[in-house]
Amino acid sequence: MDISPYATNQHNVRVQPLDYTNEQTPSMMVYHGLSIVVNGSVVGRIESYQASNPYNRKVTAVYELSAYTWGQPVDNVPGGSEGEYTMEITRGEVWGQEFELACGFPAVWENLTDQTRPFSLMEFWMRGTDLYRIWMYTGCWFQQKNYGGAFEAAGDGIVKVSGTIAYVKRSIVS
Description:
By secondary structure, this protein is an all-beta fold. It has one helix at 99-102; strands spanning 7-8, 14-15, 31-38, 41-46, 48-52, 56-63, 73-82, 86-92, 119-127, 130-148, 160-166, 169-172. It has one domain: Pnp Oxidase, Chain A, CATH 2.30.110. The strands form three sheets. Strands 3, 4, 5, 8, 9, 10, 11 and 12 form an eight-stranded antiparallel beta sheet that branches. It has a two-stranded antiparallel ribbon with strand order 1-2. Strands 6-7 form a two-stranded antiparallel sheet.
């Protein structure tokens, strides 16, 4: 085995470089962002986000009257998913492409009641330069929306929108 292309660490141990083209190469998963997608076209990016994908459900024990199982459960019955499906987002606003416009709405909202239909967001995961997985967040509604930061007279601030989005489902697209 030729080990000449391997890197050497500070302890003079040679380490095989990561080969993202090989499915057997163990490498850390990294994310590459959340995009705003309208009618199949990427029209914007989310600067930061944190989604809560609750993997919670109630499991109810089943008991039977039996001389063999007296006082002990004989089975478990899983319930539906529990918890809120929400996402905290922050996005730098772009002139003429405010968040609402990027989501395909005809105008900037004066308040949240102007959102009259849900939108979808897509999350792209890459393995090196190859597309690994796409997640789709459907049924997105704003629960809270704020223009972040303090505005100053210098006029050199970046306008950001932040808020909480409730979604119905996170599903794999590919």
